[in-house]
């Protein structure tokens, strides 16, 4: 009895291990890659030797990210639409910006978390990286509505900002629009959220439970990985409405880039980032999964399989970096006044 | 030589000590009281035995304070107008709320820091405490524009909020509008910022430098303490335009409470909370000091004295509590959708 029990457990254990291992192999052979569990390996992916990530830059970038004074009105910060307490989004269909202007194309704010892994930024992929991306919303009139001069004047009006730029980049730093936005991007690069899914792919076979493993397997088998792949499970440009019509295609005028390609959103923290799709018209994750089946894959994903995939998605909720809310430098008499 | 030098230093030291001590006595006899340096003594002032401050309530209240989903639009939180990174204010003349509506009376957002010490809340003092006050902006249509039901529905739609309320108040807690807003108020009670001024009044005579001591003395001598008194250096109802006309009196329709009384703003962190006065029309602290002389005290405060007082005000910049930016609970399928 005892011996057979022990043997039984051993067999069960090795089967599970095998199942776990083969699922990991299956995931990796389908292009899924984890956030590395070593900081050094992660840095190899996200860091740029020409402008390396340092604590001084990250702390300064965080302040600028949370500083509403760089907007024309003085009340909109990067965090307004990419709220770090809400999965990196604003939770509304279309972003609302300066003077309560909805995004003119009815576009939904994508999450900033893990955006460092995207090969393209913005829904139409027009921007190659975060430093370039960060310039857009600061200037767009329906967003922060500022000018490069306004942003430079705000930041350089405060001696303690200047001091922090010198600390981060040396005494000869030119505190201009490009440097300010690239510093915001360096903070954004650190907004990486490893999850139980990563732990699983990194070798901890117990990190996902049975239902989550089944969900991952279904996710791969159904072909979702053809777009939601790589380290971000998304973040690359893909054709949209490949196999069927999007129910809300008429909401907003966005039709992708010149070739009709649309940036695939990341699935990391997807349970926190409703509403879904480029125009934020779908609030239910289960509905979104089923719609993607018909629109992109040309298959019917039934309720049961959609729930399995959704169960897996819950394991993509990542561990957020602990962010100490910054005390911003005091405005001075030369700080430009907000314009409402 | 040596002996006389030592004697000289001793005499100088005791003179300074005496000067320091007598200034402390002068300040205290004029009604100025420090934030106590013992936590227990502070709790005696801010805590309510009927609803005591606990870590669980503070953490929950912090989440609610930063949660924009309790507003009708889903994008305005308490922190939008009372930004904890900007001295507890929004830095604009009149608050801007739901649908970019400016405050209809053109009222400036007062700081939340140290507001626990005020004897009255709102510019017209209509609210006796923070728990009562917190209900106002959540419902006001030009602010968060929500209804009690919306707020209750949002909060109770998320199991982890319910769990935290039970943890804070026990399993039988009723998670209603009143409890939600009073929990926000408990977090706000902890937003107390001791400064070098408090250290000085608490016995550290070196906490203020010579110019700051001179500024404090001028501040008292000019009579500013007649309104800016107590632990908050403000926060009580006082008559306005006692001795002269306010230059911007015609901006907005606010004329105080029924008796024409206006809540005196706190001077704590005043260098961070421009623009000044109830309608936020004055951006220069020096101008504000001089104007108060003529409007309230019927005296001319010259540039030199105004600068002395301003120098003292810098020492009122307090040490802010370290706030870890909260990760908010996930919305669920029953969470009310934002309305833009």
Instruction: Provide the residue-averaged pLDDT of chain A.
Output: 94
- Element order of chain A: H for helix, E for strand: HHHHEEHHHHHHHEEHH
CATH class of the largest domain in chain A: Mainly Alpha
How would you classify the quaternary structure?
Answer: homodimer
Strand content of chain A: under 5%
The count of strands of chain A amounts to 4
Question: Which two chains share the most extensive interface?
Answer: A-B, 40 and 40 residues
| Total helical elements of chain A | 13
- As for the CATH topology of the largest domain in chain A, it is Cytochrome Bc1 Complex, Chain D, domain 2
Q: How would you explain this protein's 3D organization?
A:
- Chain A is mainly alpha-helical and 340 residues long.
- Helix content of chain A is 40%, strand content 3%.
- Chain A folds into two domains: 28-42 and 193-314, Cytochrome Bc1 Complex, Chain D, domain 2, CATH 1.10.760.10; 43-189, Cytochrome Bc1 Complex, Chain D, domain 2 (Orthogonal Bundle).
- The first copy, chain A, has helices at residues 2-29, 39-46, 55-66, 78-81, 130-133, 135-139, 148-156, 159-169, 177-189, 196-201, 210-221, 285-297, 303-314, and strands at residues 96-97, 101-102, 237-239, 261-263.
- In chain A, strands 1-2 form a two-stranded antiparallel sheet. The first copy, chain A, has a two-stranded antiparallel ribbon with strand order 3-4.
- Chain A is globular, with a radius of gyration of 22 Å.
- In chain A, 47% of the residues are buried.
- The A-B interface holds A 66-69, 73-75, 80, 83-87, 90-93, 96, 99-100, 102, 271-272, 274, 283-284, 320, 322-328, 330-331, 333, 337-338, 340 and B 66-69, 73-75, 80, 83-87, 90-93, 96, 99-100, 102, 271-272, 274, 283-284, 320, 322-328, 330-331, 333, 337-338, 340.
